[in-house]
Amino acid sequence: MMCRKMWIKINLKINFNKLRSFYKKYLEIKEELKELNFNQEGVFDSVVAPIFFVVTNNFTTLNQAILYTGILLLLLFLYRLLRKQDLKFVFYGLVGTLIALLLARVQGSASGFFIPGIIRDISIAVVGFVSIIIKKPFTIYSSKAIRKWPQEWYLHELVRPAYTRVAIIWTLYLFTKGGLQIIFFNSPEILISIKLLSSNQTTLILLVITYIIGQNKLQSLGGPSVDEFINDIPAPWKSQQKGF
């Protein structure tokens, strides 16, 4: 009985440490997103517009739903303008949503609204798949664009496999998301559910998970850190301890 209680206590401690580590990485990535001017207003607008559109379409005609959603977008944009908020990402979201509304009108159903998102997800997934095949995972370039680390470091034989693993996860995720949207294309209610389930917070959680997986893989490979690579320090290396 004593051994069982001790075993439970050890397991609880291990799980607590894992959760604490996960939360620490979550805060670390969230802080990095702030440095990248991650725009919460644009994210909110991009979620509220499709929800409003699909719900309104259930009670009115398609043309009326498009008109009312357009008015909502205009009001949101004016609200941001009056509050002197950063309009760059909001503007991009506005243009993207207007294109989606136009496609819904051309396609003749509320499902047409989701075509741009489906094309985007499948396109990135295809690019990801090709990049993995040619051994230049797309995650290398997304990281390099943010961190400005040398490309030669990313392609090091004891570094690249970590980025390949993360690229596989994101490619599978996007293929799954895009595939589900194609399967349920004629059901706008399911499409909006998929959009909500794969919202910004879900993406952030997946970022944390792949961040941890990538870092763990880097350290298990035993390759050089960025500084060690730049300074041409010979092995054994301490590996990259922060950032991915």
What does this protein structure show overall?
- There is one protein chain.
- It contains 11 helices and no strands.
- The mean pLDDT is 83.
- By secondary structure, the protein is an all-alpha fold.
- Helix 2 (40-57) packs parallel to helix 4 (88-107).
From the structure above, extract its key features.
244 residues; mainly alpha; 2 domains; 11 helices; 77% helix; 0% strand; elongated
Mean pLDDT: 83
Q: Give the DSSP E fraction (strand runs of 2 or more residues).
A: under 5%
Computed CA radius of gyration, to the nearest angstrom: 22 Å
Q: What string, H for helix and E for strand, traces the elements in order?
A: HHHHHHHHHHH
Structure summarized in a few sentences:
With 244 residues, the protein is mainly α.
What is the element layout, followed by pairings?
Elements (H helix, E strand, L loop, with lengths): L1 H34 L4 H18 L4 H21 L5 H20 L7 H19 L4 H10 L3 H4 L5 H24 L4 H10 L2 H22 L4 H5 L14
